[in-house]
Amino acid sequence: MAITEHPTNNQIPDLTGISRKKSKKKTMRQKPGVKKFVFNPFQENTYVLYEPEGACVIIDPGNNSPEEEEEILSFIRDQHLRPMHILLTHGHLDHVCGAPFFFEKFGLSPKIHPDDLSLYRTVKMQGEMFSFPVADMPDAEKLVMEPLAFGDVTLEVIHMPGHTPGGTAYYDRAYGLLFSGDVLFRGSIGRTDLMGGDYNLLKNSIKTEILEKMDDEVRVFPGHGPETTVGYEALSNPFLDF
């Protein structure tokens, strides 16, 4: 759902020489591609992560109109991609409302952390609260909390509760790509005033799973707003006052 705040400036200041950690040597495989789409009235970020041979995953499908459906479908077709998984970071309607489209087109059920299954099942009710029409949702599969591989890409599945009980991030360690959902934003963090939110738990998730384990150069692709890096947030995010 909507966030606390985030800056609109897309440029991340140069933090060269102000690094908390040294980066690790990357593998020699070809770098995967990331395509961002901004969908629905909540300005939610939907991502297509794809590897060189064409296998891809869709993270947080927020498409909710024929125009948005055609936009993302055209990209998949033009790039000759093969969707393998629909991955959800949490169960709020702006991040899952496109799941019926992908289930119909590709037969893919969305995957979500078990602790957010109950939230996912209330998406129709969430839509009614915001006068936001949502199609009937397909049954979701429970995420297995172990590395998920597709093609030449392996994503670590990280439980990060706080914004919601089953909040999940997806991390490509080899190339330093983190899809944080509504956990961490550029200059902000996710809301905790909604059902199931817990401010202290969210901050602890960010501290223990991101700041203490990931290199500064890791690129963060949030659920709303511009891209950032772990190092930039560690040094400048006013909510991370550890």
In brief, what are we looking at here?
With about 240 residues, this protein is an alpha/beta fold. The protein has seven helices and 14 strands.
Give the percentage of residues in beta strands. Answer: 15-25%
Low-pLDDT runs: 3-10
What is the number of domains? Answer: 1
Largest sheet: 6 strands, mixed
CATH class: Alpha Beta
CATH superfamily: Ribonuclease Z/Hydroxyacylglutathione hydrolase-like
Q: Can you characterise this structure?
A:
The protein is an alpha/beta fold. The protein has a single domain (about 35-235), classed as Ribonuclease Z/Hydroxyacylglutathione hydrolase-like (Metallo-beta-lactamase, Chain A), CATH 3.60.15.10. Helix content is about 25%, strand content about 25%. It is built from 7 helices and 14 strands. It has helices spanning about 65-80, 95, 100-105, 115-120, 125-130, 200-210, 230-235; strands at about 35-40, 45-50, 55-60, 80-85, 110, 140, 150, 155-160, 170, 175-180, 185, 190, 220, 230. The strands form 3 sheets. The protein has a 6-stranded mixed beta sheet. A hairpin with a 2-residue loop joins β11 (about 185) and β12 (about 190). The relative contact order is 0.19. The model is unreliable at about 5-10 (pLDDT under 50).
